[in-house]
Amino acid sequence: MSTAPTLELADIFRQYGPAYRQAHSLPLHQHRLMHAIETCRTPELGSVVEWCDHCSYAHTYYRSCRNRHCPKCQGLARARWLEQRKAELLPTDYFHVVFTLPEAIAAIAFYNKQSVYEMLFRATAETLLTLAADPERLGVTLGFFCVLHSWGQNLHFHPHLHCVIPGGGLSADRQSWIAGRRRFFLPVRVLSSLFRRLFVEMLEKAYAAGKLEFFGDLQSLRDASAFHRYLAPLRKRKWVVYAKPPFGGPQPVIEYLGRYTHRVAIPTIGCWRSKTVTFPSPGKIIAMAASPRK
After folding, report:
1. CA spacing 20 to 30 A to 266: which of 69, 75, 138, 218?
2. Are 169 and 141 in contact, with CB atoms under 8 Å apart?
3. Res 149: pLDDT
4. What is the pTM of this model?
């Protein structure tokens, strides 16, 4: 039984990339990224020939681009990351907590990824450390790690932070371990409220320092009064924070996150009856206008 060929991201870039780059103004780093994926493991990057002096068998390996966004180059890096995280696990219960940015903030993040992502990490860390250290909560020094996801299951831009957190921490004198409640880590409403306040404060400081840029539908936010009106409703809305013990222990959660730490949104498409692909405006995810072959 023959195996149907797969349609890789590189195939899409080679076929539709030139027209897309001509139709849209892309940053230089995106041009370089697309070119790296297009040429990965092709003669353009050169090759290494292995030859057996006993049977004269020769095999040619084409060089990899080693770009962190390239689906072909990240398998080994992912395996190493998983082993490192698993080696850090403690013999205790763990919790899986996700901090999500509201859609209005995600719109700002789209044009200010580095600044907003830094705020997301800092606000999340401060929220967890502050509440865990509160004597009325756990009163511990907490340790955890976070993984950023910039897109959701529907492949739309959706920045959120996954955190894997032990159910306890070190006492104030760092001499003993204090375990939290097994089925309840920290109040989600309190996490959400503090996260919202810290993040909005950081966003306002970044705006005042001129570190944010606005384009397209958000150009009006260059005016300070418009920016503050934009943020006003967000101070009252509930920000989504998801928290519950990971099913089956922390390792399945780490393996789940590992599938995305060294992977792009569409690594392998599969075989399609039609290869019609639509590239919308820059930043939007690629939409496949085809159906999978049965």
Report:
1. 218
2. yes
3. 85
4. 0.71
